[in-house]
């Protein structure tokens, strides 16, 4: 085959691929490369923040870890809390006395990568480093406690208005989730995860506790791969990412309930 003929064949192949790309045919490799790049980027963004949550010298003196958001619901009077109405006297109620009303994603919002979970995760990641304030203002996102963070993420990402503290968000999940669990290994990306108060870094610190000794006082959002994004305290830096199941890491021992609300 002559050199001229080989050049013509190569040119024809290039031209064919160009038209195929315009029609979407030769773009599969590009799509795969783009997807791989995005996954690599996500892994970089979703790395654990630091080791503050497992540093006993810090956690042992961190009062906000021991308290969590316990009592936050009592900070808001009936005028400050959203107005909820119901036409039925048999309406199920949350622990705070407000009606249990199921929230759904705003249908005008387009799912990212085909899943509302990614809308939630992208929004949560965007607040990394936001300062922690106990009883933070539920009407704006300049600071968060644990339950304000999860509520704001779902509200901003999907227009879903959840209860205002961990205890009531847990009651919401327990009543309405189609997929709830008490085994942390069953957690999926986007799930709400609930924990009891911090008592120490060892499993023994939580052994033998009764249900009344394990109130739900902390929560966060599962990132998958054993990770959580949450807001724990000022000392630990506000919104952060941690790996739940790590040696001598207390979150795995504190876990009470998890569930998905987008299934």
Written account of the structure:
The chain is of the alpha+beta class and 263 residues long. 33% of the residues lie in helices and 13% in strands. It is built from 8 helices and 6 strands. The protein has a 6-stranded antiparallel sheet. Strand 4 and strand 5 (239-243) form a beta hairpin. Helix 5 packs across helix 6. The model is unreliable at 3-40 and 77-89 (pLDDT under 50).
Mean pLDDT: 84
Give the CA-CA distance, first to last residue. 61 Å
Number of strands: 6
Number of helices: 8
Radius of gyration: 23 Å
**Share in β-strands:** 5-15%
Sheet with most strands:
6 strands, antiparallel
Strand order of the largest sheet: 1-6-2-3-4-5
Helix content: 25-40%
Q: What's the shape?
A: globular
What would you call the structural class? alpha+beta
Oligomer: single chain
Low-confidence stretches: 3-40, 77-89
- What order do the helices and strands follow? HHHHHHHEEEEEHE
């Amino acid at each position: 085959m002559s050199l001229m003929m080989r050049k013509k064949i190569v040119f024809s192949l290039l031209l064919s691929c160009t038209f195929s790309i315009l029609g979407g045919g030769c773009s599969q490799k590009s799509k795969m490369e783009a997807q791989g790049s995005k996954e690599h980027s996500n892994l970089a963004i979703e790395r654990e923040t630091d080791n503050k949550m497992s540093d006993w010298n810090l956690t042992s003196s961190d009062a906000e870890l021991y308290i969590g958001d316990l009592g936050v619901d009592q900070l808001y009077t009936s005028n400050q809390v959203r107005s909820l109405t119901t036409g039925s006297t048999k309406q199920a109620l949350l622990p705070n006395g407000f009606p249990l009303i199921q929230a759904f994603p705003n249908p005008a919002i387009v799912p990212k990568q085909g899943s509302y979970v990614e809308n939630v995760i992208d929004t949560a990641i965007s607040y990394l480093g936001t300062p922690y304030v106990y009883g933070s203002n539920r009407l704006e996102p300049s600071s968060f406690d644990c339950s304000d963070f999860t509520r704001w993420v779902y509200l901003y990402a999907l227009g879903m208005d959840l209860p205002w503290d961990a205890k009531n968000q847990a009651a919401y999940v327990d009543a309405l989730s189609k997929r709830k669990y008490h085994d942390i290994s069953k957690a999926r990306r986007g799930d709400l995860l609930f924990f009891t108060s911090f008592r120490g870094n060892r499993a023994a610190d939580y052994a033998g506790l009764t249900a009344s000794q394990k109130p739900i006082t902390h929560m966060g959002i599962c990132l998958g791969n054993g990770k959580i994004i949450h807001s724990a305290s000022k000392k630990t830096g506000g919104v952060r990412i941690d790996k739940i199941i790590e040696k001598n890491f207390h979150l795995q021992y504190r876990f009470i309930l998890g569930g998905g609300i987008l299934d």
